[in-house]
């Protein structure tokens, strides 16, 4: 996109030079001056259409990227909040455990540490965060491109030059007659047809870009679903740890209340998740 902007800026400079030359020689330039000015008019029309199409495309792309970025940030915040609440709940359960379960608590802490490590180093979460940063950079780049390079001011200048050239062309057409007018009209009609074809091509490119964005949106839905599934699995394993903790606590206090002693020590099985 930056290459297109540079090309448009060079064309605008060229138009300014041609307009200045045409204004200095309009009094007695003759057929050569008329041809240059008509070519300037057609070039201005083409550049104006291209600038307007690119402006609309940039605005639409910025809006969609901002919306996608916001949704990804909300999803990451939700995941972090769920992890924080889960860790807080586990800490409360640990603080309520009796002193005789130090071994069990130690093993549970190791399991919790392993669970946190697996979640923090999950490749999907890492890729998700990297894509989020990349999207932010793309949004900033597009915003600086659409404002910093002064496309809106250049578009306004281009429209002004186009109106001036249209007035000159209108005056020449009134002075000309017969076959020359018909010939120039035919050329202009051909150029107009080319402009229409260019507009249709740009519309096709916009449609393809929209399809690409829709495809990326669907891929993001699949990624989010995968992350949610991983979170559900992690939460289920945490709940299993809590149940085992409660069961172990109850069984360890059973000899005190009933006098029954288990023939072997009771401890939860280390749960490996990666």
Automatic annotation (TrEMBL):
UniProt cross-references to PANTHER family, sorted A to Z: KINESIN-LIKE PROTEIN KIN-12D
Any GO MF annotation of the entry: ATP binding
Top-level division of the source organism's lineage: Eukaryota
Organism: Amphimedon queenslandica (Sponge)
GO cellular component: microtubule
Coiled-coil spans in chain: 5-68, 185-219
Protein name per the record: Uncharacterized protein
Keywords: ATP-binding, Coiled coil, Microtubule, Motor protein, Nucleotide-binding
Cited InterPro entries: KIF15/KIN-12
